[in-house]
Write a structure and sequence with these properties.
Elements: H1 5-18, E1 21-25, E2 42-43, E3 46-48, E4 54-57, E5 60-64, E6 68-76, E7 84-94, E8 98-102, E9 105-107
Antiparallel strand pairs: 1-2, 1-6, 3-4, 4-9, 5-8, 6-7
């Protein structure tokens, strides 16, 4: 049974309320947020649009050291500690380091 657009929107907004910070990982975070890189988590500002279960974040920027390989972006409730909520796969390599800016989208099916 498919969820109604209204229910998907409620669930997406619940995720938006919990996923306040983004982290970077160099391996699968699993269910606990493991493999998190020693890079400061960045605050997320989410926006919901239509009643469709989709929310998007403003762009966040991370400073990346040389030789870093990212595999996932994680979602947390706090800048340090906190509760790990979920992740998306995002494979990017930084041979020379620099900055990495990303805007994120969460879609509730």
């Amino acid at each position: 049974m498919a969820r109604s657009p209204e229910l998907r929107e409620i669930l997406a907004q619940a995720f938006m309320a919990e996923a306040s910070y983004a982290s970077l990982h160099d391996g699968d975070p699993g269910t606990t947020g493991e493999n998190e890189l020693a890079i400061t988590r960045q605050p997320l500002t989410w926006t919901s649009g239509e009643t469709d279960g989709v929310v998007t974040s403003d762009s966040v920027t991370f400073t990346i050291p040389p030789g870093t390989v990212l595999t996932h972006v994680g979602f947390w409730t706090a800048v340090t500690g906190g509760e790990y909520r979920d992740s998306i796969i995002n494979n990017v390599a930084f041979d020379e380091g620099g900055t990495y800016s990303v805007a994120l989208t969460y879609t509730q099916e």
